[in-house]
Amino acid sequence: MDAFFAANRATWDERVAIHLKDETGMYRMTDFRAGIDTLFPVEAAEIGDVAGRRLVHLQCHFGKDTLCLARRGAVATGLDFSPAAIAAARSLAAEVGVPARFVQGNVYDAPDLVGRSAYDIAYVTWGAINWLPDIRRWARVVAETLVPGGRLYLAEAHPTILAFDEIAGVIRPGYDYVTPADRPIAEDIDTTYTGAPDRLRSTRTYEWVHPLSAILTGLAEAGLRLTFFHEHELLPWRLFPMMVAGAAADQFVLPRDMPRLPLAFSLGAVKEGG
Ligand SMILES: C[S@@+](CC[C@H](N)C(=O)[O-])C[C@H]1O[C@@H](n2cnc3c(N)ncnc32)[C@H](O)[C@@H]1O
Questions:
Q1: Sequence-separated (6 or more) residues with CB below 8 Å from residue 78
Q2: Whose CA is nearest to atom 15 of ligand 1?
Q3: Domain that holds residue 93
């Protein structure tokens, strides 16, 4: 398992500088630096009041969303296993003058690294759980970080659409709907998803598709009670080349003549015992 994490960390380390440069504008760094909240419309509408709440952002990348949440008043901690991401997050926080704590380490070690029963909100979004082999263990980790009555907010690509691929302009089943922990989807990709032209040296990625049954059962087993579950027909990145711009500049949807398919889901869950 360590070899999978090491390869993934190497590619994420390299992507940080490319994403920060933001040549394609996907990360809206100019807006962010101007003080504009750059959370995507889905989580901006659903996250609710975070002011004064202790919030842990798991897999925070270079901390932009963590800092948006801190600007909304959260007492924010971000965790990511990429040293480059954490270094960038700390300097971005200093640059924009927003206080937040950033911790480097594997999400599976989060309770030891950021604290147990220490947070009112755990925040996990867009392209996080696909890097993790064991979703039930992840759910237990999330629950451990929360105080009783604390809540998880999760927004992710929908596992239904992750089982598909665009081949010759047609969306067809391309992957199993569940990925075994010891047999991840291995791919070699020499560019990042923002569309930037930079070539990566660390091309190998290992990813896992987790079905909704595993995610929801994992949360229930960890003592996290579902408070809402939403499905969305949009994603904040172009998963397939055929996708077109949605209502907002940073949303992508399937072409209108296609059957409607769920592209994303979001959920809230509360740790029992509050
Ligand atoms: C697509 S990004 C998440 C983006 C996030 N929505 C944000 O706020 O920008 C995925 C992140 O997960 C991190 N990551 C992947 N596997 C991890 C692991 N096992 N433990 C901690 N971080 C991990 C990567 O370093 C990367 O920063």
A1: 56, 57, 60, 63, 66, 86, 89, 100, 101, 102, 103
A2: 131
A3: 2-271
pTM exceeds 0.70, yes or no: yes
Read off the DSSP letter of residue 235.
B
Structural Rg of the chain based on CA atoms = 18
Buried b / exposed e over 239-267, threshold 16 CB at 10 Å, is bbeebeebeeebbbbbeeeeeeebbbbbb
Give residue 87 CA to ligand 1 midpoint distance, Å: 14
Residue with the smallest CA separation from ligand 1 atom 1 is 127
Q: Where residue 109 sits, what CATH number does that domain have?
A: 3.40.50.150
Neighbours of 116 (CB within 10 A): 12
Which residues have C-beta atoms less than 6 Å from ligand 1?
5, 8, 12, 59-61, 64-65, 80-82, 85, 106-107, 125-128, 131-132
Per-residue pLDDT of the chain (274 residues; tens, 9 = 90+): 699 999 999 999 999 999 999 998 899 999 999 999 999 999 999 999 999 999 999 999 999 999 999 999 999 999 999 999 999 999 999 999 999 999 999 999 999 999 999 999 999 999 999 999 999 999 999 999 999 999 999 999 999 999 999 999 999 999 999 999 999 999 999 999 888 999 999 999 999 999 999 999 999 999 999 999 999 999 999 999 999 999 877 899 999 999 999 999 999 999 998 7
Structure tokens at 261: 């398919």
Structural element, H or E, at residue 172:
strand 170-173
What is the distance between the alpha carbons of residues 88 and 37, in angstroms, rounded to a whole number?
A: 19
Q: Which two tokens stand for residue 187?
A: 């791919």
The whole-angstrom separation of Cα 126 and Cα 46 is: 14
Number of independent structural domains in the chain:
1
